[in-house]
């Protein structure tokens, strides 16, 4: 643990007052840092961030946060001091290389980022004019030098006009046949960006070997992309995902395997570790092709455990918190309505649920991994929900690099 920090796991009979007295800190600080709401109930097994006052970070770290233009302005304002880069999601393009802006204005986010000394980053994804993701769109552009040149020209024009300071290339499901063409595309973008005073990053699917099979992996050449880009993001999340079986979103044992491979191919100072800022709630039993998990915030997850009166457990291998609960009918948590809101969708036979999320224990495990491998940075997908304890803990572990 970094100096001046403690993580306390709630035991039976604990109250915020008794925990504060035990550490000699104010009740108000614990409530604020852990976003505990009145009447200040706690869940058995809940991990609390305790700020003991002193701070001696390990070293500086590049920190990127991804956000959509519909982010709450207060959430963005609170988060920006902790970010080196704000990656605004997202710009698309046409098969001819014409750049497509986000559906909502992004200028206000750029302005806020610059006011906070944070670099605004243009995120480029293969979204077409209907807002649909397409790997054939990737194919049509990277295999067409005229389209590549047009897209880079459009990027540079937009960045100069709006004040962006870099571009992040977030292409997924690249066809195996487009692997080398995609690498060359990234190289061309990076060279043109450097010549104009900008930098380039690229998102990498979480590979564990050079020849890993699968549509997520075959189009990404770690070594070549690491050489081409200024830095890379390891997308080390989504093991547990919307349509998959219940499990940790970013199990540390699996994340470690990706990092071990990445550092064998890419200079450590170029590598950013991907960190999820969310969890999932799965109705049970899981049925492949039918079951759909609900994305929830980490604070919301704790509220569900409190409201359902169930303990939070911790998987020592995955280094991730989880719990199960039962409800009459399918009263799955819904977005909106406040932290931890559970909106009734009907009644009937009891439905079991399994929830996996992130807390300060799982986050400290990821920060320790960054320190162990001396990685250059981390990137949060995404910062749409405010999770105060994460940012307080990050602040205790590292100095935040500012451009």
What does this protein structure show overall?
The chain has helices at 16-23, 27-33, 73-79, 107-115, 135-142, 145-162, 179-195, 222-228, 252-265, 298-308, 360-373, 388-397, and strands at residues 5-9, 47-51, 59-67, 85-93, 99-100, 119-124, 166-169, 199-204, 231-234, 271-276, 279-284, 294-296, 313-315, 320-328, 350-356, 377-381, 398-400. The protein is of the alpha/beta class and 403 residues long. Helix 7 (179-195) runs parallel beside helix 8 (222-228), helix 9 (252-265) packs parallel to helix 11 (360-373) and helix 11 runs parallel beside helix 12.
Radius of gyration, in Å, reads 22 Å
Order of helices and strands: EHHEEHEEHEHHEHEHEHEEEHEEEHEHE
Average pLDDT, all residues? 94
Strand order of the largest sheet: 3-4-6-7-8-9-10-16
Low-confidence stretches: 334-347
Shape: globular
Cα distance spanning the termini: 27 Å
Question: What's the layout of helices and strands?
Answer:
Blueprint: E1 5-9, H1 16-23, H2 27-33, E2 47-51, E3 59-67, H3 73-79, E4 85-93, E5 99-100, H4 107-115, E6 119-124, H5 135-142, H6 145-162, E7 166-169, H7 179-195, E8 199-204, H8 222-228, E9 231-234, H9 252-265, E10 271-276, E11 279-284, E12 294-296, H10 298-308, E13 313-315, E14 320-328, E15 350-356, H11 360-373, E16 377-381, H12 388-397, E17 398-400
Parallel strand pairs: 3-4, 3-16, 3-17, 4-6, 6-7, 7-8, 8-9, 9-10, 10-16
Antiparallel strand pairs: 1-2, 4-5, 11-12, 11-15, 13-14, 14-15
Helix pairs in contact: 7-8, 9-11, 11-12
Summarize the structure.
By secondary structure, the protein is α/β, with parallel strands linked by helices.
């Amino acid at each position: 643990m970094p100096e001046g920090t403690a993580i306390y796991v709630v035991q039976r009979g604990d109250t915020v007052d008794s925990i504060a007295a035990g550490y000699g800190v104010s009740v108000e600080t614990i409530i604020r840092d852990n976003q505990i709401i009145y009447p200040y109930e706690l869940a058995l097994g809940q991990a609390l961030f305790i700020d003991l006052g002193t701070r001696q970070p390990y070293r500086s770290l590049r920190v990127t946060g991804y956000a959509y233009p519909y982010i709450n302005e207060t959430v963005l304002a609170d988060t920006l001091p902790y970010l080196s880069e704000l990656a605004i999601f997202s710009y698309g393009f046409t098969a001819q290389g014409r750049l497509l802006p986000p559906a909502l204005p992004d200028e206000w986010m750029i302005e806020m980022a610059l006011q906070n000394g944070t670099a605004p980053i243009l995120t480029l994804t293969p979204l077409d004019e209907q807002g649909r993701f397409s790997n054939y769109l990737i194919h049509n552009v990277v295999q067409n030098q005229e389209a590549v040149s047009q897209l880079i020209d459009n990027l540079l024009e937009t960045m100069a006009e709006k004040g962006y300071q870099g571009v992040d290339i977030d292409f997924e499901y690249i066809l195996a046949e487009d692997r080398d063409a995609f690498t060359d595309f990234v190289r061309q973008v990076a060279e043109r960006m450097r010549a104009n005073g900008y930098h380039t990053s690229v998102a990498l699917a979480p590979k564990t070997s050079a020849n890993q099979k699968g549509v997520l992996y075959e189009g990404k050449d770690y070594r070549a992309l690491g050489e081409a880009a200024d830095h890379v993001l390891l997308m080390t999340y989504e093991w547990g995902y919307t349509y998959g079986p219940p499990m940790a979103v970013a199990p540390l044992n699996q994340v470690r395997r990706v990092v071990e491979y990445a550092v064998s191919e890419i200079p450590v100072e170029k590598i950013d570790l991907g960190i999820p800022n969310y969890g999932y709630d799965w109705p049970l039993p899981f049925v492949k092709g039918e079951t759909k998990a609900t994305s929830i915030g980490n604070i919301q997850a704790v509220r569900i455990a409190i409201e359902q009166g169930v303990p939070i457990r911790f998987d020592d291998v995955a280094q991730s918190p989880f719990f199960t609960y039962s409800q009459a009918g399918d009263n799955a948590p819904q977005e909106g309505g406040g932290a931890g809101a559970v909106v009734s969708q009907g009644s009937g036979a009891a439905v079991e649920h399994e929830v996996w999320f992130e807390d300060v224990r799982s986050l400290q495990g990821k920060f320790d991994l960054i320190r162990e491998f001396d990685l250059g940075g981390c990137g949060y997908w995404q910062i749409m929900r405010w999770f105060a304890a994460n940012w307080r803990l990050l602040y205790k572990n590292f100095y935040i690099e500012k451009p």
